[in-house]
Amino acid sequence: MTDGDGRTADQLVIFGITGDLARKMTFRALYRLERRALLNCPILGVASDDITVEALIERARDAIGEHEQIDAAVFDRLAGRLSYLHGDVTDAALYRALAEQIGTDRSTLFYLEMPPSLFAPIVENLGQAGLLTRSRVAIEKPFGYDLASARELNGRLRAVLDEDQILRVDHFLGKQPVLELEYLRFANTTLAELWDRRSIAEIHITMAENFGVEDRGKFYDAVGALRDVVQNHLLQVLALVAMEPPVGPGADDLNDKKAEVFRAMSALDPKHYVRGQYRGYADVAGVAAGSQTETFVAMRMEIENWRWAGVPIFLRAGKALPERVTEVRLFTHRVPALGFMPQREHADRNQIVLRIDPDPGMRLQLVAQGGDSWQNVHLDSSFAQDLGEPVLPYENLLHAGLIGDRQLFAREDAIEETWRIVQPLLDTPGEVHPYEPGSWGPAAVEELVRGRRSWQQPWLPDRA
């Protein structure tokens, strides 16, 4: 399906093709699209490295070979699409050379795998070179570092581009289980009838990484967990969990419903916010002395609308935690005490768990009789087993960008709303609590859920 201008790009230009994102994600995604016969245009890489196209092809081969068994015929087709142009992205001469090489009448997807500070200058230079009339531009998060900078960036982009020409990439929106949320919720009466405040007592979202900042100290120290994964990834996931059903198949139909969720959320209260920093973070190369940057956050939020009013939402995310896992967990209300059991007692709450990473899947936790009491039973689905090999996020995103489908990309109003929601936590961040690597964060995080369901051990692929 296409949405927006309906044009399929006849040229892909990747700024920053010699960088980490291309090595880790882009080349592999392009190879898999080529293998699926979904890549139908030339690819021009742009970067400052003075290398040959042959060297670029070898970089692509090495990057793809780290993850895929390379089919020579498929790779040769991909290599045949590649060309390369080097230069300084702040120099107008580069854009004159680019216009000469690809022409100004193409429907081009410009993919900016560049630092955010260069988004607006690159787009402005592309506009001055006459390269944007029939083109789209994809940019990677973060989209600003607070509400004011997000508005400034949007203003500069919109001075050159229409909104439907801008594709704001958040790779979580390309993940299979995130895409499945819309279908799971609205195509299944069993779930749809449970999915509101009458049945759901609270929602927990966890994004845990079992590694630290590693060699990204300089980058991460200027960002922190709140900006890195909450304002974008996790709030976008929450919107899909909480939204009303879209009224049509278009990107705006979907994004309208997500935006309604954000508009129904008050700005977050620093009193319901915990920040942490794992011990040893300060020793990472590139981290400033005495840094107060958080590597862990937890918070409570609510959505003040008819579907969710009164349902607390607890979110935690961090590095150097015990596991690498991302999940959404919904708890139902407790049933009355089981008077027909030998010992009158309350059964545990039912749970609905969507695991986003690793091994995406869904679990329903129900209650059954086990001897003289109740016990939990699990109904589990592994999406890979039940639905087949998943498409990688960047496969989805690159293909959507090339065909003009904007459903997988964030919209301007949603970006500004999410910054509005987190802005008080940026303005009044509060104390940073130390925590041990391998723990579930600082002890203060338990206060957030006092009187509610405790944080759960995440559902992992090899764990019952």
From TrEMBL:
Give the protein's recorded name.
Glucose-6-phosphate 1-dehydrogenase
Q: Which organism is it from?
A: Mycolicibacter acidiphilus
What is the purpose of this protein?
Catalyzes the oxidation of glucose 6-phosphate to 6-phosphogluconolactone.
Per UniProt, the keywords (alphabetical) are:
Carbohydrate metabolism, Glucose metabolism, NADP, Oxidoreductase
Q: Which residues form the active site?
A: 233
- Which InterPro entries does this entry report, sorted A to Z? G6P_DH, G6P_DH_AS, G6P_DH_C, G6P_DH_NAD-bd, NAD(P)-bd_dom_sf
- Which residues does the UniProt record annotate as the domain Glucose-6-phosphate dehydrogenase C-terminal? 183-455
Query: What family does this chain come from, according to its entry?
Result: Belongs to the glucose-6-phosphate dehydrogenase family.
Q: Name one GO molecular function term.
A: glucose-6-phosphate dehydrogenase activity
Q: Where does NADP(+) bind?
A: 48, 88-89, 141
Q: Name the Enzyme Commission number(s) assigned to this protein.
A: 1.1.1.49
Q: Which domain of life is it from?
A: Bacteria
Domain Glucose-6-phosphate dehydrogenase NAD-binding, chain residue ranges per copy: 13-178
Question: Its pathway?
Answer: Carbohydrate degradation; pentose phosphate pathway; D-ribulose 5-phosphate from D-glucose 6-phosphate (oxidative stage): step 1/3
Instruction: Provide the residue positions that the database annotates as binding substrate.
Output: 171, 175, 209, 228, 319
* Pfam families assigned to the protein according to its UniProt record, in alphabetical order: G6PD_C, G6PD_N
